[in-house]
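hey
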């Protein structure tokens, strides 16, 4: 991702010099001529790095550093200080600056080194935060409010502690890899075991074979060194075989041997190797029909189909739709540096009314576009590009509304009527819950 940098400097020549050096590093550089303007810009949007002079008209340098450091998504701060005023830079570092540059700057390399160090520190902090949030917790895109999805997770909980091969079935975009990762997470809770994935439909047969089983040096033109394949590298972890129904027949036979004996050979090799990988496969095809049409090996099908898990399409788990959309909104608004964003009521109605043939993947893409297009923090139906339901299309009609109403009543009963706790369990805001209660005539409960 291209890093966004703000240069705050009242001297036009110095400001242009810093802009050119940082832009040459591939950074997206914006400029401000004084501290007041710079602070307004930093309050309006997020920056990865701010370089600011400490001596400018208007807002003082130390006050500016304090204000920038206190922002919700505070940038890394590098201050520029005149010769002989290093004490000012030290004071700035005490209140939040990462480093300083002393004027006159010796040259572009000095700026590059300090900027790179600051960006690397920010990247490290972001990765640590991501790991802190997700280590030991469910995968970030796993939302299961609907009874059908909760039933899927019950099956996951049963099979995860075992080494059984799992076959995940479902339409494209339903989240089959998310389920595979949840199986891995529950099986290897210490988090240091590999989870490796490959799309069997994305590679030619020869390349897929090399990726799976590896090859020896000189096995074919271009094989300059020995390559360890995924079957070997995933030992003591999980190998996820996505789109297994597209695997060529020749490789199906080799995969069958691995599942039966745990043995394999690298391409061009004669040594028999062993693997302890746990295999999880997924497909959006009807493998039983493919077996009948002799397009998929029957013996491999039965080896894979030890423990099948079918992930229902999004249209069949309506209680997950808005919960997933809300989750995607929070994640993507953060990733795209748009601050906190919410779905308006008309956007939620449009989301619930749309059939989502592309499932969760299509929903995520729609939310990403909306986060980018929305003019303010409230996403509306027009931002999503979805048709707004007509007034007569009441959401209280039909199975969807009936199931949602029953679930809300059940959760409210479980928490003794506490709306805040109920909203947390349902994965929606209290405001959305109150709207649903009014919509279903439950406001007196």
């Amino acid at each position: 991702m291209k890093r966004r940098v703000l240069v705050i400097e009242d001297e036009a020549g110095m400001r242009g010099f810093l802009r050119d050096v940082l832009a040459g590093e591939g950074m997206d550089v914006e400029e401000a001529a004084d501290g007041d303007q710079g602070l307004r810009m930093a309050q309006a949007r997020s920056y990865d790095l701010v370089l600011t002079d400490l001596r400018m008209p208007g807002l003082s340098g130390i006050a500016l550093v304090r204000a920038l450091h206190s922002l919700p998504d505070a940038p890394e701060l590098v201050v520029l200080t005149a010769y002989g005023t290093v004490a000012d830079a030290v004071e700035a570092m005490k209140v939040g600056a990462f480093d300083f540059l002393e004027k006159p700057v010796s040259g572009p390399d000095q700026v590059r080194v300090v900027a790179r160090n600051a960006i690397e520190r920010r990247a490290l902090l972001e990765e640590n935060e991501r790991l802190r949030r997700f280590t030991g917790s469910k995968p970030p895109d796993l939302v299961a409010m609907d009874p059908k999805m909760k039933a899927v997770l019950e099956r996951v909980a049963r099979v995860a502690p075992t080494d059984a091969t799992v076959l995940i079935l479902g339409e494209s975009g339903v989240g089959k890899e998310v389920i595979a990762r949840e199986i891995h997470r529950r099986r290897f809770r210490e988090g240091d075991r590999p989870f490796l994935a490959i799309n069997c439909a994305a590679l030619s047969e020869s390349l897929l074979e090399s990726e799976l089983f590896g090859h020896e040096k000189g096995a074919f033109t271009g094989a300059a060194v020995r390559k360890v394949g995924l079957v070997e590298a995933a030992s003591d972890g999980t190998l996820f075989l996505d789109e297994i129904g597209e695997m060529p027949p020749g490789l199906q036979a080799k995969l069958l041997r691995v599942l039966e004996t745990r043995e394999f050979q690298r391409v061009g090799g004669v040594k028999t190797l062993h693997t302890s990988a746990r295999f999880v496969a997924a497909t959006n095809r009807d493998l039983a029909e493919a077996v009948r049409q002799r397009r998929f090996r029957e013996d491999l099908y039965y080896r894979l189909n030890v423990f099948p898990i079918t992930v229902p399409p999004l249209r069949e788990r309506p209680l997950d739709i808005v919960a997933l959309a809300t989750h995607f909104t929070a994640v993507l608004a953060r990733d795209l540096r748009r601050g906190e964003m919410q779905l308006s009521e008309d956007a939620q109605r449009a989301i619930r009314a749309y059939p989502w043939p592309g499932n969760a993947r299509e929903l995520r893409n729609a939310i990403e576009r909306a986060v980018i297009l929305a003019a303010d923090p409230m996403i509306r139906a027009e931002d999503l590009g979805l048709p707004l339901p007509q007034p007569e299309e009441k959401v209280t009609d039909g199975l969807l509304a009936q199931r949602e109403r029953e679930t809300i009543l059940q959760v409210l009963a479980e928490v003794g009527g506490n709306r805040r706790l109920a909203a947390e369990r349902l994965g929606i805001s209290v405001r959305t819950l109150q709207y649903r209660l009014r919509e279903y005539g439950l406001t007196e409960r």
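Residues 46 and 337 are 6 Å apart (CA to CA). The radius of gyration is 27 Å.
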